[in-house]
Amino acid sequence: MSDTTSPTDIKTTPQDNLSITRHTVAIGGQTIAYTVTAGTIVLKEEAEKQGEEEGASEGEKPKASIFFIAYTKDDVVDPASRPLTFSFNGGPGSSSVWLHLGVLGPRRVLLDDDGFGLRPPYKLVDNEASLLDVTDLVFIDPVSTGFSRPAPGEKAKEFHGFTKDIESVGDFIRLYTSRYRRWLSPKFLVGESYGTTRAAGLSGHLQERHGLWLNGIMLVSSILDFQTADFDPGNDLPALLFLPTYTATAWYHRRLPADLQALPLAEVLAQVEAFALGDYALALLQGTALPTQDYAGIVQQLARFTGLSQDYVERNDLRIDIFRFVKELLRPQRRTVGRLDSRYTGIDRDAAGEHFEFDPSYSAIQGAYTACFNDYVRGDLQFESDLPYEILKGLYQTWSYKEFENQYVSVAETLRKAISMNPHLRVHVANGYYDLATPYFATAYTFNHLGLDPSLLDNIQMSFYEAGHMMYVHQPSLHKLKAELAGFIAAAAG
Q1: CA-to-CA distance for 96 and 169, rounded, in angstroms?
Q2: Tens digit of pLDDT for each residue in 167-212?
Q3: What is d(CA 445, CA 448) in angstroms, rounded to the nearest whole number?
Q4: How far is CA 268 from the centre of its chain?
Q5: Residue 457 — φ and ψ, nearest 5°?
Q6: 292-306 and 265-275 helices cross at what angle (nearest 10)?
Q7: How many CB atoms lie within 10 A of CB 73?
C-alpha cells in the first residue's frame, strides 16, 4: 500500500513526498507487523527580510528535503510508551544505509558469516537481529546523502559543516517527533563513526535548543575527540591509542612472535595496552631526551607488538601512521589490510607504495549494500526517485569545522554536560578490535577523560567485538550487538 504526494511546483515550493507500506518480519520467534514510511520531509526555517525592511518576517522558507525511512510496530496500544530510535551513519557524507541494512532494520544485506561479500547478484534477507521488536526506528539521511537535497535556491555546502549538520538533523528529529506525536516516547539516538560525533553534538543541541531530552545514545565505532585520531606532527596520542589495534591486526594475520601468537587475543591486548600507557607513553613524552638504550628497547617492543621490522619502526621514529601500517604489515605478501576492518586484505598495483590504493574492507561490501538498498527502496518500499541514492559522498574532504579553528574537533565536553544536565541519559559504546578508523583504545581514552562526576560513571557502558568498524557484518558480533543494544534500550527506557 502506498500514499504518495507529488510536488506542485518543485522550483519554488518543495513538498513532502511519502510512501507508506506494510510488512511483517519474524524476530526472536515472534511475528511482528509493522508500517514503513519512506520519503522526504521539507525542513523550513523562519526567515526575516533584509534591507530597508530588515527584521520583518517572511514566514517559513523551505531549506531542504530530508529523506528518511521510519519503521513503526503495528497494533501498539500506547505509542507513547514505545521507544523511538533515530539512526544515522557518519562520513561525514554517508547515508544511513549501513546501520539500516546491516543491523537495525527488519531487512539486512546477506554476507558470509565472517562479513565478507558474496558475488553479485546480491540478496536482502529478513533480519532476525533487528531492533524493531524493542523500538520503533527512524533512519535519517543528512543533506546531500541518500535522497536528501537542499531546497531550490539553497546551497548544499551550507549544510556541509559541523554546526549546520547538527542543526538540520536536530530540526528533523524535532519535526518528526512533533508530527507523529512522539514527544512522550522514550527517545534514543544511534550513530556510527562520524555519526557518533553528530550524536554527541545532538545530545546537547536537542536539550538546549528544543528541550528534547533523550533516554539514551548508542555509539557504534565512536570518535568524539579528533585529537585521538589525527597523526599530526607533535601529537603523539594516536601513536599510543592505535597501537593495540595494530597488535590485534597483526595477531589476526599471524604476524606476531610465536609466544604472543599462541595467546588468546584478550591476553595479547592486555599486554600491549599496559605497554602503551607505560613505557611507550613515557618514551614519547621524552622526545629526543629519551636515552639511546631506552630508545632501542622501545623499538624492539614496538616491532614485537606490531609485526613490523625494527628497522621500519626506527625509520618512523617510534610513531606508526595508520596509512603506513595498512600498507606495510603484509607487504611481503603483496597485500594491504583494511582501515574500516583490518581482517580484510586487498591487492594494490604494486607493493612499493607508502599507502594503500583503496580500503579493501569498504570495497568488499559497498556493492552489496548499494544494490540491495536501491532495489529495496523502489520495490518493497515503493518510493520512486530518479536521483542517485548517495551512499557515501566525499564530503569529509571539504567538511567545515570552522567552529574549531586552531583546535581539534571535540564533542566530549558536550556529551559530559548533557549527561550532567540529564543524569538519566545513558550511553552505550560498541567497539571493534579490528577497527583502524576509530580504534577502541582511543575511544576508551576519550571516555576515561570525559570528566564525568563519579556518580554518573555508571551511565556509560562499553562493549567490544572481534570485528571491525561495522562489527555487525560479522555474524557472531551481529547477534551480540543486538542483545546488548536491546538490553540497553530496555534499561534506559525504564
Answers
A1: 12
A2: 999 999 999 999 999 999 999 999 999 999 999 999 999 999 999 9
A3: 5
A4: 27
A5: -65, -30
A6: 160
A7: 17
Q: Which is nearest to 365 in space by CA: 195, 189, 110, 190?
A: 110
For the four alpha carbons of 291, 294, 296 and 298, in that order, the dihedral sign comes to negative
Q: Please name the amino acid found at residue 8.
A: T
Task: Tell me the C-alpha distance between 334 and 332, whole Å.
Answer: 5
Using CA atoms, how far apart are residues 225 and 310, in angstroms rounded to an integer? Answer: 31
Local structure of residue 331 (DSSP, 8 states): G
Q: Contact, 373 vs 388, CB < 8 A?
A: no
Total number of residues shown for the chain: 494
Query: Would you state the cell numbers that stand for residue 297, as one nine-digit string?
Result: 628497547
| Residue 254: C-alpha distances to residues 250, 251, 258, 265, 325 (Å) | 6, 5, 9, 11, 15
Q: Determine how many CB atoms are found less than 10 A away from the CB of residue 283.
A: 21
CA distance 338 to 341: 5
Q: Please say whether the beta carbons of 37 and 20 come within 8 A.
A: yes
Which domains, ranges and CATH numbers included, belong to the chain? Answer: 17-227+365-493 (3.40.50.1820), 231-358 (no CATH)
Residue whose C-alpha cell is 525592511: 53
Q: pLDDT by residue (tens digit) across 130-148? A: 999 999 999 999 999 999 9
Predicted TM-score (pTM) of this structure: 0.94
What does the block give as the cell for 423?
Answer: 543524569
